[in-house]
Hints:
The protein is mostly helical. The protein has five helices and two strands; from the N terminus they run H-H-H-E-E-H-H. The protein has helices spanning 3-22, 27-30, 33-56, 66-79, 84-100; strands at residues 57-58, 61-62. Strands 1-2 form a two-stranded antiparallel ribbon. Helix 4 runs antiparallel to helix 5 (84-100). The longest helix has 24 residues, at 33-56. The protein starts with a helix and ends with a helix. The mean pLDDT is 92.
Amino acid sequence: MSGLWWWILAGCAVAYGTKLLGYLVPERILENERMTRAAGTLTIGLLASLTLVNTVATGTSVVFDARIAALVAAGVALLLRAPFLVVVMVGAGAAALSRYLGWG
Length: 104
């Protein structure tokens, strides 16, 4: 077995151990209002950063193409409190239109 597989197995073991340790956290800590708020904030921040990276990155370079238009259009739909399916459709439509017009 090559050295890469040992690293993969070690990563799997660490991920499994971390998951297992989560069951040992006392319930009173998990029900704490500060912990709930922090977990929610971290989740939102992680999702926002992943969305931005997937929007402007291609490989190792930064690009500005139709995905920017899709993200802006979806953001406007969210601000107007559109349902999630409508937000997705508006973003997809904006990307298709901007690609049709030759941007990206």
